[in-house]
Structures are given as structure tokens and as C-alpha cells.
User: Fold MYND-type domain-containing protein from Hypholoma sublateritium.
Amino acid sequence: MDRDTPPMDFSFEWSDERPDKKKAPAEWNKSWESDLQQYYSGLKCGYFPPLKASPFLQKLMQLGEQDMQFAFLGETRILCKLQKDIRQFALPKLAADNLEEYWCALDSKRRDDVILQALCKAVGDSPGMEFYRTWCPELTIENLGKDKGRYFIDLLKIIITEDPDVTDAQAVHVPNPMIEHMWGDSSFKACGTVFGRRVRSNRTTFISLVVWYILLTLFNIENPIYIGKPPKHHTAKAIAIAKQIGGDECARGVKRALKHNSKLEVNVQKVDVCWYCERDLSRLPPGTQLKACTRCKGIGRTILYCSKECQKEDWKTGIPRPHKEICGKPISDYPEISSATQPESPSLLSLMIPNPDPNFRRSPALLHQIKMLKENLDVDYMIFQGAPAPDDVGIRIPLEMRPLRLKFLMLRRRAFQSGDQTAVNEMFDVLRGFLCIGGLSVSDAVSQLTKEYGVTITIHPRQRTERAPDFVAEELKWAHSYLDALQSQGAN
Assistant:
């Protein structure tokens, strides 16, 4: 690209002269991809053009930060729950149902059709969602479908994440060089910190929705998303601020931009929903009324609850922040995750699951194993049975066999931490006796461990060349602490 290329005009509006996505979805998508190519052409040329945000836009964003803080809070809540749904749905399918192989083996025409359907469904779900695609230059049919659809699998694995510090109250973001450049641009920064966070949140929400709808479309599942109505005072307030800082002409410009956004929302079903459980009246018991938090209503903020129970739970454990931190108060700048949602340390889970070594990447199958063990603390290992077997089986070594259980837990911890082949083989030796007692398939268990750790399982110990692991005093201390903690919690 010529380095004399003028700055990109960072403004409210993109063209709304697009084909109808319901009547002509392919043409609608081509229109979007053409705009994305033109707007982000610097990506392919190694040159990032500067941004241009007018002083009026910068000031408008700064003065509207309090409204944006509240909007950001609601968007983050929805995004975190969406990514949690993706993890819960995709992990077992990646681990046990060969999702990755199934997706990559699809006929290219079928795969492209699934991607197109997902893009259409994503923009139809939320007010302004079509504008969110502005920040996602990589979401094209060609990019998502090339190399047998590898990029979709990569996105899915990023959202699933192996980072043990990521909780359900923290969104996982997808990096992009062009977007990272934009966030560092002085013109962008001048619009305020919260504005930058909202752009990042908008981008991640759209990417996550497309990933979600690819999964649902692939498995022929219908799952409509209901979007809560935004507070009505926002529109009038934005116009008033615009008039204050730029006069009637600026106010008319903002009004036109808001009208443009409303065109995108014309077919969107917007309903009042409970802030905590996200159910609208059609999914609540007859006679239920949504009631607003009184203290928040007093400062012009609308947060609705369907019951005292939901209000109490949101007060204590709300995502991304417990309501007690913001109730009736202006929302100040805050880190992406509240300290109230951080796990206690040291905890039972931190004893059970160490951080992975820097050079060890946990597979989706192993992440699924860890997830199931977190939900079943009295189980030492899960064996996943494929069809036609109806249930997964949790293996627990009896308390009467404490020395063997201590050994297994130390082996498991090493395997979780580094994928150590010797530890995995020794762990298999312990499991094999319980597999036989339960009538479970040894060969299926070997396949499962291989998929989880990516190592070769040598069934016969005499054929192994590696030496049995020596445990250090710290590992033995950890194992005893873990078993003692289990017993104190009644999960033994």
C-alpha cells in the first residue's frame, strides 16, 4: 500500500446499502467482505494507515463514558455467558466425538454454507450487531473455510482456553494485528479507555457468536438468543451531549447515526429480561413481573430482576461484577475481572490442577477431563464411553487403598502439568485394574489417554524403556493435603 494513503475515517457510519441478508445472504456477505477488504487492506500489505477521529467524536465518547461503562458491563456479562456455553458444548465434542475431524472432513460447499448461515444468524441477534462485524476483518467465508476449516478450529480452541486463571467471569479475546494497532493509535485513545474496551468487547462478541452458530448449525440445533432492551434515556442523552459540545449540526449528525443503527435493528426481537438469569416473561412462570433495582433506578440505570432469588445471587456472584459493587453508584473504571470472582488460594482446585508447564499445551480432550473432575471432586479419573454406552464412568480409588491413591494423584498431577509420558503410563497401570473390575474397555481407555496427552501408551510394563518416576517430598505433601482436604469437605 502506498504510504501516502489518507487516514481511515473513524466515524459512526458504514454503508447500509446492502442486499437483504434473508433474501440474498450470499450477496449480503459479499458486500460486507468487500467493505472489510477495502477498510483493512493494510493488513495484507504490511502497512497500517493512521486513524482519524474528529475532535467532536473524541469529546462525545469521553462525556458519555458513564453510559458506556454500564453498556460495557451488560455486554461483558452476555459475552462471558456465551463463551461459557461454547466451552460446555464444544469440549466434550472435541474430546470424545471427533468434532475437529468431522468439521475438517466436510465437503467445502457444505462447510461454506454453514459459515454463511452462522454469519447471518450472528448479525440478526442483537441491536447493532451488524456494526460489530466492523472490527472483525478476518471473519470471511474464505478465511474460515480455508485449509479444511482450520481457522474455525483455531478460534474455537482460543475460546475454550487452557489458561487456568481464566474464569467464567472473564472474556477470552482473539488477537488481530490491525485491531491491536488501532487500539494503540492516539486518535483512538483520545476517545477514552471505556470506548476502547467496548470496541474490543464488540469484536469478541461477534466472533464468539459466529463460532457458536457454526456449532449449532453444524449439529442442526436451534437456540434463539433474546436481547434485553437498552435503557431508553441513552438516545436522548447522546443527542443532548452532541448539541452541548458541537451545536445543532453535530446533534443532527448523531441523530442520523442513531437512525442508521435503528435500521439494523428493525427485525430484531428486543425484550425485557432478568439481568441475572436472562429469561424474558415468555420463559418465566405466568404472573411474573420484572422489577427494577430501586437504588439503580434512582440514578437512571435500569437493572431488572424476575425474583428475589436472582437479585440475591447477582448481589453476591454477578458476572462480571457482583451487583453489590455497583448498586446505586456511578460505574468507575475497573479491571476486566472483579476480585470477588477470583478463586481463593490455595484451594482444593489449585491443589488438584497445577498450572501447565510453558512448553506443554493441554489438548481439548485433557481440558474436558479436567472440567469433569472439577465437577466431580470425589472422582480420581473419568473414563468416557462412546456410543452405545450411555454413561461416562468416574473411577475412585477406595480410601482403604490410600497409598495407591496417593501414588495415582501424584502421577496425575505430573501428567496434568507436563504430559510426562512415564507418569501417564504409570497412571494407566493403576487405572487398568479398575477398568477390568468395572467391565470397561482397556483399548478405549488407551485411546482416551493417547488423545488427552499425545503420548504413546505402552500396555505391557516390561516393554517400557523409561524408569518409573521418583516422587519428591513436596509432591507427597501435596497429595496428603489434597486427600485431607477432600475428606474435610466430605468428597472422599
Observations:
- The mean pLDDT is 78.
